[in-house]
Amino acid sequence: CRGFKYASNNQLYSQYCKKKGIVYLRCDSAGCKGTAKIDDDALFVMNDHDEHSTMETEFSKLRVLDTMRKRAADDDSTSLRNIYLEEMRHSEASDSVGYATVESSLYKRRRIQQPTLPATLDDVPDAIQNSRYATVKDSNFYRGRINAGQCY
């Protein structure tokens, strides 16, 4: 139940536990004792934050990372390095996000978009025809399966 981020009042929380339908959160700032919980879709602050600045830089990092992941999944013709460079040119978080830190998540997002390998030959038409690989430059790439001895 980890990995989710929540934002409230320019502060960033991470989910650390979920019990009986209640999601428990803690502040992302190191050393801060700020905690909250989500119960019935309402956020309740349990412990106030220590004195620390708002987390606008973290928000901008998350925004640019989300944009890069979406582009990596949708645009398989552009290299991941070029996607990173293009997004960093227009980002406020360009000083704090390195390519080495985002490279594996971009590869993962691109890999997830690839169609699964069919288990049998009979599964090949469904795997190709229902994917973006059915056409190449607006022309049909896959026209069906033929058996040995068939001529067209």
What does this structure look like?
- This protein has 152 residues and is of the alpha+beta class.
- It is 33% helix and 22% strand.
- The chain has four helices and seven strands, in the order βββββααααββ.
- The model has no long low-confidence stretch (mean pLDDT 82).
Reconstruct the topology from this structure.
Layout: E1 5-8, E2 11-19, E3 22-27, E4 35-39, E5 42-47, H1 56-74, H2 80-89, H3 99-113, H4 124-129, E6 135-136, E7 139-140
Antiparallel strand pairs: 1-2, 2-3, 3-4, 4-5, 6-7
Content-based structural category: alpha+beta
> How many helices?
4
What's the mean pLDDT score? 82
**What form results from the Cα inertia axes?**
elongated
What is the oligomer described by this structure?
single chain
What portion of residues is helical?
25-40%
Q: What is the structure about, briefly put?
A:
The chain is α+β, with helices and mostly antiparallel strands and about 150 residues long. It has four helices and seven strands.
Protein traits:
152 residues; alpha+beta; five-stranded antiparallel sheet; two-stranded antiparallel sheet; 4 helices; 33% helix; 22% strand
